[in-house]
Sequence to fold (726 residues):
Amino acid sequence: MLRKFELKNYKNFKDNIVIDFGKVGGYQFGTDCITDNTISKVLIYGRNSTGKTNLGKALINIGFTLYGYKIMSEGGIFLNADSEEENALFVYTFKFGEDEVVYRYKRISETELEEEELSINGMEIFSCYYKDNFSMNCNNVYLGIENTTLDRFIQTIGSEDDNEEYSGQQIPFLRWIIFNVAIKKGSLLLKLADYVKNMFMMTVSGGLGIRLRRAYDRFFESLEDEEELKKFEEFLNFMGVECELVLKKLPDGQNELYFKHNKLIPFYENASSGTVALMNVYRRLIIAAKNTSLMYLDEFDAFYHYEMAENLVKYFKQMLPNCQIILTTHNTNLMTNRLMRPDCLFVLSRSGKLTALCDATTRELREGHNLEKMYISGEFEAYE
Amino acid sequence: MNNENWKEARKRRKNLLIVEGNHEKNELFGLIFKCFPEISIDMEDVWIYGTNIYMLYEDIVKEYDVDWDEQDVDLPYVISKKKNRDNIQYKNDFTNIILVFDYEHHDPNFDEDKILKMQKYFTDSADVGRLYINYPMIESYQHLEQIPDNEYENRQISVTLQPGVQYKNKVKDTVVAKSVDLVRKMREILTERFSVMDDIACSKCVDELLSISNTNNLIDNIESKLKNIIEQKHINTAKHQFKDLISKLGYINERHSYWIYMREMINQIVIHNICKANKIQNGIYPISSNEYKKCFEQLDLDKILQIQNEASRDEQNGYIWVLNTCVFVIADYNFSLVLADK
Fold:
């Protein structure tokens, strides 16, 4: 699991910002927000434009580093605009069983890497420095690779990647190892690679506007299985969308989903914004999420009735106990010990600091406290 | 009402202290907030509303009807509406709402059911408000003959001891009363004896004098704090007088400031009252220090009130257990404040 994430000089975060999933408070309630002594369900609040979306983008940046996914880049400015420093720092601390893996890198831009470093249980495995003169240190023995293999990597320095998706960028060493070295099954590197592969982020704006028909075909196809259709229908009903669903195969082989009424109503064209948003989450979970390691849902409940938002949080806790789920929201109704706990509720401040509610006041927060009212009355004002 | 200027930021983090309007309560809470800066309540942000618990009860009924305890009562609203209709306030702007009332068994309006209903409803200072009832009255926090005071376990007063001024006389010479009184005394000397008229400067000077925490050059130190507000011709008399006052309680020899000294004393008062509350509720007074917190969490102020009601019902032979609950404000806020100095 991801134990800690540190970031500096990225977009609006000029100073260091940390999400410490290991900082578990001693609460006896809400234990379903904690997995293996690590915070696994997080809600982030914050005024508009404090960087809730940017934080998510930063968090999944490692996916780009390791797999070169096209990230949701709007071509925005990468480095902090007020800083003198020329790179952004990303530090990921993972815990797999008893082992601690720290992957740390500095980026000059969305695509350019300056430094990269991996350590396991405090021992440096490798470090690479790419800017100007390339240099690297590598614990060949730990990685089980020959110098000749390493030479092959060194040859990639300066040359461009063949794949046009990420042409012009240097391949990070860790990515290169994952794809070019036979890693032992069950090794920490593989665990790290797996974890990162299964991280994802969803933004509300991604689901807004044009509904891409194509994206749904695969999901509708999975509903051909009657049980899956039933499950989806149950899910919608549980979330408060009362409906019955029917799936029909059209002559062209495509599937069409309908709301069942006297006349069938096509789901895709007629579902409400809330229902579509809900389906997007569900579809993502069904298709990709069996082993999702971490998901960052930005403004996850922007279209939801308060009860639906609550139900979805409950659903996540119950159905995805091992997945680290970070939700950003403005819905203060969720800021409650009935659902969450003070060490899992965070406020992102205007100055780019992320603070758990239990650390945002000297008051000892108890289960009976009305956290929402306290937030609104300014109890945590110094950290907003 | 509600004609707010949209450009004016809503002022939050206010504090409401609902008391019976008596000076001492102001003094006690002023002292608590000063000695426990962690609670981060600035007295300037404290809105004090003086009323009697039964009047407050009637005001709540007027606004919400008799089944008010099944609704979400907004005390700042109830009070501000009555006080100043042009400046209505809401509980969403208050981080602390604290109600402190005397038990007032002899009050003609005393009503067991009403006071119990209040005690049951007002349980959270960060939300609707928290009610602290002092038995027999606020001054009970001073009712320790020494520290520690093992006699506190059985301290009761007869219901025939009234009016309140009699009880006040009973406690006015205790070590706590004398220690607390130092602030008032210093102010009095500055204003009455040395004619300091500027209220803010006077408070500031008292604050500085009480922050002195060592005996090095004590006289000079005192003089430097007095010289700006006292006439030169009085300085010599004044500095010796203040030296005596400051030295008398002994804290300065321990290299503590008055505030640290009082913080420890208040903590002792809290602990004595936790033990006492446990005695009333469960019949056990001594608690080992690692059990304080657990014991405190299990205290039930409703039950204590009911026991007090029972004990005091007989007008001749009835009695009231001496107990101060308003000092629990500190323990409720964060129990580690109580234990930190141990």
Observations:
- Chain B touches chain A at residues 12-14, 38-40, 91-95, 123-124, 126-127, 333-336 (CB under 8 Å).
- Chain B has 14 helices and seven strands.
- Chain B has a mean pLDDT of 90.
